[in-house]
Write a structure and sequence with these properties.
The chain is built from 16 helices and eleven strands. The chain is α/β, with parallel strands linked by helices. The chain has two domains: about 10-230, P-loop containing nucleotide triphosphate hydrolases (Rossmann fold); about 235-335, Orthogonal Bundle (Helicase, Ruva Protein, domain 3). The strands form four sheets. The chain has a five-stranded parallel beta sheet. Strands 3-4 form a two-stranded antiparallel sheet. A hairpin with a 2-residue loop joins strand 6 (about 145-150) and strand 7 (about 150-155). Helix 10 packs across helix 12 (about 270-285). The longest helix is centred in the N-terminal third of the chain and has 21 residues, at about 10-30. It is globular and about 75 Å long. The N and C termini lie close together (about 10 Å).
Length: about 325
């Protein structure tokens, strides 16, 4: 028997169509600055609409910083950038208390906010900082607040962490712990440009072309679209499908396919399931549909789960990729 779903109103459909057009206009504006990388841009925008964070992986020089800075400008949000290095301390990110003297000579402490007090925080080469400094972002990413010197301070709303890391240079780096990886909504691969894209980059950056002025959305409209996407109903069958997908990434479950049992140490967390459902809702909304589908879930499967499944020694030694394992999981688990 088909599961009943409340029929959407005409106003709901119109709101979704307006949101999809606004996001498409935002993407077109960004592509005046960023050449190509539409898949990466779409992934970052999906993270922002979901209220999540993104981890971008790619070699230096592919425009990751430019992409994030342009997005912050386009949505008129405060942007902050931190270059992660081994000597970076938590206070360099969160802020610190300084001793001050007032006009009467009375001493006191005043909190000076760090760069984390922004709407969009670019954590550049995050895996170059020590675990102690990386962990300074855990509370900020999960609870949108920080605690220093016994005081809890809320972060601006909205708040997004967009972190980058270089997959090639591993000397002197500190791999992100699983707890921190799990807090990233998506992990996105930034690909090297094609020949045509590289030519266009040269055309734009080696001449006198002026940088366009970006201003497509503001924080209020962004929050409105976030709420609209979250309000889309998902059928119970979709939730069951996502639950089975995530459980199948764990080698100890009965539904786990052979590759998972052989090559995976542990699978995705409930945050992975939440990311799949929210990203599917956003995919549906941006395609002017009112209900997410199984195809929407499959579309975001890699971005949502590749960083949430951990290979065992055998899997790493044989070079089995998380993508290949998730492909088998997707083929193995069928919807209702």
């Amino acid at each position: 028997m088909a599961e009943p779903i409340t029929a959407p109103s005409d106003s709901s459909l119109q709101a979704i169509q307006d949101a999809a057009r606004d996001v498409e206009a935002l993407t077109r504006e960004l592509q005046q600055i960023v050449v190509g990388q539409r898949t990466t841009l779409s992934g970052i925008i999906t993270c922002m609409l979901a209220g999540g964070h993104a981890l971008l992986e790619g070699v230096p020089g592919l425009g990751k910083t430019l992409m994030i800075r342009a997005l912050a400008r386009a949505v008129q949000l405060k942007f902050s950038r931190v270059q992660f290095t081994p000597d970076l301390m938590p206070a360099d990110i969160l802020g610190t208390s300084i001793l001050i003297h007032d006009s009467d000579g009375v001493r006191g402490l005043r909190f000076e906010p760090g760069p984390v007090f922004a709407n969009v925080l670019l954590a550049d080469e995050i895996n170059r900082a020590t675990p102690k400094t990386q962990s300074a972002l855990l509370e900020a990413m999960e609870e949108k607040q920080i605690t220093t010197n016994g005081a809890t301070r809320p972060l601006p709303d909205p708040f997004f962490v967009l972190a980058t890391q270089n997959p090639l240079e591993q000397e002197g780096t500190y791999p992100l712990p699983e707890a921190q990886l799990d807090r990233f909504f998506f992990k996105l691969q930034v690909e090297f440009p094609s020949e045509a894209e590289l030519v266009e980059i040269l055309n734009r950056t080696t001449g006198t072309q002026a940088e366009p002025s970006l201003a497509r959305l503001d924080g209020a409209r962004l929050r409105e679209i976030q709420g609209l996407c979250r309000s889309l109903p998902a059928p119970p069958s979709l939730h069951r499908y996502v639950a089975r997908l995530v459980r199948a990434t764990h080698p100890g479950t009965p539904d786990a396919p052979p590759m998972v049992k052989k090559f995976i140490r542990y699978g995705a967390s409930p945050r992975g399931a939440q990311a799949l459902v929210m990203a599917a809702k956003i995919q549906a909304a941006l395609n002017e549909r009112l209900f997410p589908s199984v195809e929407d879930v499959r579309e975001v499967l890699f971005a949502a789960l590749t960083h949430r499944v951990a290979r065992n020694f055998e899997g790493e030694a044989e070079g089995v990729t998380p993508e290949a394992i998730l492909e088998e999981v997707s083929a193995h688990i069928r919807p209702d």
